[in-house]
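Hey L., structure's done. Input below.
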Amino acid sequence: MNVRGEVKAKTQGGSGRVTLQPRPSSLPMVDAVAAEVKESLGDAWLPEIYRTHIRPLRTRAYALHPMRKDAVDIQHTLLGIELKTGRYRTLCPDLATARYLAVWTRAGCSSIAVPYDITKISRLADELESAWHRMLFLIDHSAAERKPAFRFRVRGNLLTELQYEISQAGAGATIPQFNQNTKQRG
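Output:
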């Protein structure tokens, strides 16, 4: 193989002449399948849910320990519910929050917005988990006849785009703003 990524073919007729053929690249196919999956998801694309349903709410920023692998586990302990990410453990106030954080941790996001109103987290966690599993299903379905390495490249491509879009949307303030006008006695 030469510097340009071209592969030498067999010599023709023993003349010692070598013809060069371009190396077949699967990168355009990976991009095409990733774009197809993203288009199929439509409003169920995780960054779209994040921008339209989560960021308009009053939220607080939350830093995560992102993991590329599925090494995210929700554990029920005597102290409550913990989200185990690799070797890190994060105490969560309830199961819905743990499920919400688990989706973003699996996606590899390092900082996200968590709704301040805990009554909304359960519905959002359901929606995010459904969208996550739908994305994985569509990847498997779109690349069913391809090798597992191809599916991993498509997934990696989508996760990179997902992480970029989430970081562009931002995680918001660490502490939410409370707009309360109090009357002070003078």
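Strands lie at 6-11, 18-22, 59-63, 72-77, 80-85, 88-92, 111-115. The chain is about 45% helix and 20% strand.

-- N.
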